[in-house]
Each structure stands twice: as C-alpha cells, then as structure tokens.
Write a structure and sequence with these properties.
This protein has 375 residues and is mainly α. The protein contains 16 helices and no strands. The protein has one domain.
C-alpha cells in the first residue's frame, strides 16, 4: 500500500521540484530575455516605441493558458482514468495529480507566461518592420515569382477553379482563423506542461521560438511584403487580385471573415497603431511554418499520424493562398526553413528526461498506467 504525503510535505516537494525544473529551463528563459532585449533595441533604434505590444496579450494569454487549457487538461485526465481503470481509480488519480506531476505542469505554466512576453516582442517587431523598410518593397517580385512557378498563373486562380464556392470559403476561414490557433497553441500547452512530452520538450520549444524569430521576424523583415490582400494598396495595381478579393468580400462581417480581419490589420497599419496580433507581413508564412513543425514532431511519434499532419500542412498552405493572406512561395519557404530548424535542433539538442528518478509515492509522474505498473 502506498502512503501519501502530508499536505505541508506535498507543498514543499512541489516547490522544490518546481524550482529544479525552472532552473532546467534556464536556456529557454535566456532565449526569451535575449530576444526581448533585441526587440526593444530594434524599436528604440527606429524611434518606434509606440509600436510596442507587450500589454496586449496579458489578459487573453493568461486566461487561455492558466484557466481554459488547464481545465480541459484536468477533465481529460479524469476521463482517461475513469475510462481505463475499473478499479484502483483513487490510486490512479493520486498518481496523475502527484506532486511531481503538479510541479511539472506549474513549471510549464511559468514558461508559458515567459512566452507571453516572447509573443509581445514578436508582435512589437512585426509592427515596426514597415518603419524599418519604409513600406512593403517585395510584393511585385514575390507575386511574379509565384506566377512563374505556377505556369504563368497566380495560384489562387487554380484554387478558385475547383473550390470557388461560398461554403468552401466559410470552412476554410474557420480552419484558418479558429482551428489553426486552437490546434497550435493547445499543442504548445501540452508540450510545455505534460511529462509525456518530456523527451522532446526543450527541442520543441526551442524550435517553436525559432520559427517565430527566423520566419516571422528576420526573413519577414528582410523581404517585407504585405500579401495579396493588400497588393493593390502597396503596389497601385488593384486589378491583379481584385476578383479574389471581391469573392472573399462576400464574408465581410461574418464570423471568422478573412476580409474583416484584413481590414482590421490595414486600419491599424495605416494609423501606425498596435492591436491584438497586429502587424502585416506575408513572406514567409508562420501559419504554414508552425503546422510543419508540429507535423515533423508528430512523425517521430507515429508515421501514419505524421502523414495526416503533412496533409494538413498542404491544406493550410493552400488556405493561405485561397484567403489572400499569402503568396504560395510564402508557404513553400516557410516549410523549408522550418525543416532546416528542425534538423539542426535534432543534432544540437538532446532528449530531455526532465526529472531524475525518485523512489517513493511520486516516483512515476507520467501516466497512470506507468504509475500503477510501478506500484
């Protein structure tokens, strides 16, 4: 029979393990700190401190990661225990919510709050990129390369030839503007807080941050473009994507409308103001980059699931063109850069066991099945 820890001892154990785990994450916190300082220096050099976006994410990010996702995680764990165990459920629950497991999840929440600052830096830098480049310089070149690669035709025309119906638009908009965010940030939460993801945790989070920095800031700033939705506004040629935008305008005012969000972004850009997820840049695509990253990691776990994930990557890449957010090459380059980031991380960052083995009531913190087997 396993004897539980007294409550004060549990708190001390949670605190000690939490401190240990936070120290283990020092490298990730250092990346956040360096990136934030570099972002502030960039804003200061451009005299663009008004483009700062650090306060914008506080409420929504905290609510999502400290309330919504944890509630769903607890419900999922309880359902899993009830479904898999007809007896010894109390023991399974105690193991699932052991001090080690709670400390691990809390360390993940600490890191997620650090990533809130990271995302604020990303948006701040993105807001300031048009100031640094004096506008969007590369739309014509990128659109012409896109047409050249697709047999002299802008690729959205190929998509609309087979999927130019309003119900398709509605479905694609929901996926791109809702499901994509839920999927990617729930995966981030799982990797940060679940011991089951421990072997890839550091490598995944380092790659996650690299995607935002290299794809979303560095390359985006060097080859700044606005994308098809804003092509006419930045090049003076509204006709090239005019028919596409006229079709997408059918959804103005509807939930998840791409055009409504594009109008919101342009209004902020035109006024030199910041807002939630503000900033305009098309090349390369972070949307495609993040789902590519998740597909690569999922393939390590299961090749069949990885294949399905890469099908989803193709769908998101096509969706980004369909909704006039991106040129097709934005997705191609975004996926290629993420592949290089992933391969480099596999060589440079070893598997991460996170916690040393410990004997006693909390020796196994991963899953209830492993805990019961150990008892």
């Amino acid at each position: 029979m396993i004897v539980g820890w007294p409550f004060p001892d549990r708190l001390r154990l949670i605190g000690g393990t939490l401190a240990q785990l936070v120290r283990t994450d020092a490298g990730l916190y250092l990346i956040i700190a360096v990136y934030t300082l570099a972002g502030m220096a960039f804003l200061n050099a451009l005299d663009a401190a008004d483009r700062s976006a650090y306060s914008i994410y506080v409420v929504d990010w905290t609510k999502l990661n400290c309330l919504v996702f944890p509630i769903f995680a607890v419900i999922f764990d309880l359902v899993l225990v009830i479904h898999r165990f007809s007896s010894r459920r109390r023991l399974a629950i105690r193991r699932t919510f052991s001090p080690d497991r709670l400390a691990y999840s809390l360390s993940g929440l600490c890191l997620l709050m650090g990533l809130m600052v990271f995302q604020g830096t990303f948006t701040s830098v993105k807001n300031a990129m048009p100031v640094w480049q004096d506008g969007f310089q590369f739309d014509t070149v990128q659109a012409d390369i896109d047409a050249f690669l697709h047999f002299g035709v802008d690729p959205w025309r190929w998509l609309y030839a087979v999927a130019g119906a309003d119900w398709v638009r509605v479905a694609v908009e929901w996926n791109y503007n809702v499901f994509w965010f839920l999927l990617n940030f729930s995966i981030l939460f799982f990797v940060a807080t679940s011991p089951n993801a421990a072997p890839v945790r550091t490598r995944y989070l380092a790659c996650f941050m690299a995607v935002w920095v290299l794809v979303g800031n560095v390359l985006a700033a060097l080859f700044l473009s606005a994308g098809p939705a804003f092509y006419g506004l930045v090049t003076g040629d509204p006709a090239r994507f005019g028919d596409q935008l006229a079709f997408l305008a059918n959804g103005v005012g509807a939930p998840n409308s791409a055009v409504s969000y594009q109008n919101y972004l342009w209004a902020l850009n035109d006024a030199g103001q910041t807002g939630f997820a503000s900033g305009i840049s098309a090349f390369p695509s972070v949307h495609v980059g993040l789902v590519t990253l998740n597909a690569l990691f999922l393939r390590e776990y299961n090749r069949h699931l990885g294949t399905l994930a890469f099908v989803y990557v193709a769908f998101v890449a096509a969706s980004s063109v369909y909704l006039a957010w991106h040129y097709a090459i934005d997705g191609y380059v975004g996926a290629a850069v993420v592949l290089l980031i992933y391969l480099a991380a596999r060589k440079l960052i070893p598997a991460d066991p996170r916690l040393p083995a410990r004997r006693g009531p909390n020796a196994t913190m991963n899953c209830p099945e492993a805990a019961l087997a150990a008892s």
